Amino acid sequence: xxxxxxxxxxxxxxxQFVSVASAFDHAQRMVDEGAALIDVGGESTRPGAxxxxxxxxxxxVIPVIEKIAANLDCVISIxxxxxxxxxAAAQAGAGLLNDVRAFQREGALxxxxxxxxxxxxxxxxxxxxxxxxxxxYDSVVDEVxxxxxxxxxxxxxxxxxxxxxxxxxxxxxxxxxxxxxTLVNALEKLRVMDLPxxxxxxxxxxxxxxxxxxxxxxxxGGLALASIAxxxxxxxxxxxxxxxxxxxxxxxxxxxxxxx
Length: 260
Ligand code: 7PJ
Prior knowledge:
The strands form 2 sheets. A 6-stranded parallel β-sheet has the order 1-2-3-4-5-6. The protein has helices at 20-32, 54-71, 83-92, 108-115, 140-158, 177-185, 187-190, 205-211, 219-231, 242-256; strands spanning 2-5, 37-41, 75-79, 96-99, 119-122, 165-168, 198-200, 236-238. Helix content is 45%, strand content 12%. Strand 3, helix 3 (83-92) and strand 4 form a beta-alpha-beta unit. The protein has 10 helices and 8 strands. Helix 2 (54-71) runs parallel beside helix 3. It has one domain (2-259): Dihydropteroate synthase-like (TIM Barrel, Alpha-Beta Barrel), CATH 3.20.20.20. It binds ligand 7PJ. The site of ligand 7PJ has 14 residues, from strand 5 and strand 7. Ligand 7PJ is lined by residues 3, 45, 79, 98, 100, 120, 122, 168, 170-171, 198, 200, 204, 238.
């Protein structure tokens, strides 16, 4: 899954892809490099990011989704917590709804169900503005797993098809470095009901905290994490760096699935 941020304030590539043409070019490049999914986001969820209005989010993402849907062979994912954006994105050609708030906002789950699309449920502790202020868990693995299970059950009872659910521990969303690393090691334990697991660690501060480097220098650290995540059962890797990640993941997957 290639990340396509159409926000002027994304932490990793802020402002680079704000025009439809440049966003589309970047999506095309990621598909050429091996991305099966493109995750389009119009709301920055970095720690401390300012909120956007629904109209702003729509104006950012819908033209980009339309252009990708008409021209590229990939599944378009919409990274949004806003019911109106989910509905409009589905109409414009999105094939997956990715919500870092796990469809807990008023009307979000109903909007998602109406589209009939697959959904990704992510764990976040708190809200982006404050989530990195001293996150605390008694057991991060048990709590993330319990949250994901509860959200899966809520979705199933609301009528979502079980084949249409992906789960995600939400690396960096209300977690310290130690929490994040514990979750990487415990990935397979987090799986609930045999559902696919998506992970997003690309360029995140958990890499910077180990290597003491800036977002532009986190590729190699991200490749290590992506490979380890595959070894521990991750099914979808969300990344800014598609070509290096797809190579790393192909090698990790070959090791994981070798016959003897
Ligand atoms: C994630 C996401 C993630 C899912 C972001 C960034 C921050 N969606 N959206 N999982 N992260 N499912 O681009 O690094 O980890 S936004």
